[in-house]
# Entry
Amino acid sequence: MAHVLFVGGGDPSKLSAYRTCIRKGYRITVIDQGESHNTRLANEVLFFNPRDLTEQNVEKIWRAVKKTNDDHKIQAIIPLSEFTVELSAELNERLQLKGLRYCVSKYARNKFIMRQQFKKFGLFTPNFKMVATEEEAIYEAEDIGYPCILKPIDYAGSAGVSRCTNPEEIKRAFQLAKAFRRDSPVIIESYISGKEISIEAVLSEGEICFFSITEKFKLEGDSFIEMGHISPYTLPLDKVELIKKTTEMAVRAIGLRDGATHTEIIFDDEKVFVVEIGARLGGDYIPDLVELAHGVNLYELWIESIVEKLDAISYFIPEKYAAIQFVFCDKGKVLSISEIESISKVSGVSIIDANNYFQIGQLVPVFNSNFDRGPFMMIQSKSREKLINQMNVIKDEFKIQV
# Structure
């Protein structure tokens, strides 16, 4: 029986990782600082903060992991969060397992050195600079050009990301980015227009065994908050091949050979730009969407890519489409929420999964990042057009009154 170590208990969107292990009969150990619905499904929980990378905390975690490994040999270490990639890599190297290496985790977590690697490998990526002060940001913006983007150097979930068109906006954006990483520099980069997609890929011994393309939808205006995804995003095969080759180069740029990646890409008629890459699968239930559309379980492949060598799965256009639609509202106190079941009964929307998150009386903040979002519905259809119609029905019919 394989023994899998999850680093970080994962938010509700990672529940399928646990269900996959349970279905396969794997033993589950989790490192997390508290109990949750996910961690209660594990065989063992090591109660530590996996985001605390101080030497003292890492050594305490290592001693606990080593004891667990002595009792039940660990075969695979899986980070269930962007913020636990570095610890996962550290433990992986100490146990001498396939998968993440510490140098890979540094490339994948630090957007500046990640971009340096992309340039080194000849990939198209936004022009970028690392800045430590507002004055530096304003100075570099003159070279990069407006509009430009400011973001924290090592955060996630679109938190602290701003689009700027003038120096005054840069001042506000710089302070917002610093609010998430007070002791770290900020990245300023050129704004790239085009279609945004994400690529989920699983690698074995340096080769992509499976990849899928997910379409991304954002809130209107200058927001970077993602309001929904559709899997797959179908493109002409020549464009698919170009995106796959670009992803392969991005993976080589950070040095990952075994495991999973989530790559953010923007493309137009002429170029494919790599924005960033993560050494883990995407959030927002994207692995669930891929399984609904392709019939491929990414968590299962991820674990198997570390435990054994995988054969490649040829790219194919699935017969089904799957989407997730998040629902938004104004800031305020929740007075009423539509019943999810009523949307399905009245409109015929084929709801696969849903979660309200918000409760009556709850104070809803301003939506500043993906971490602030609330209710969602996951749906499935045989056509993209019907799926988009269903997503629009959800936006129109599901109401949160504040």
Remarks:
- The mean pLDDT is 90.
- The longest strand covers residues 207-218.
- The CA atoms of residues 12 and 38 lie 7 Å apart.
- The longest helix spans residues 237-254.
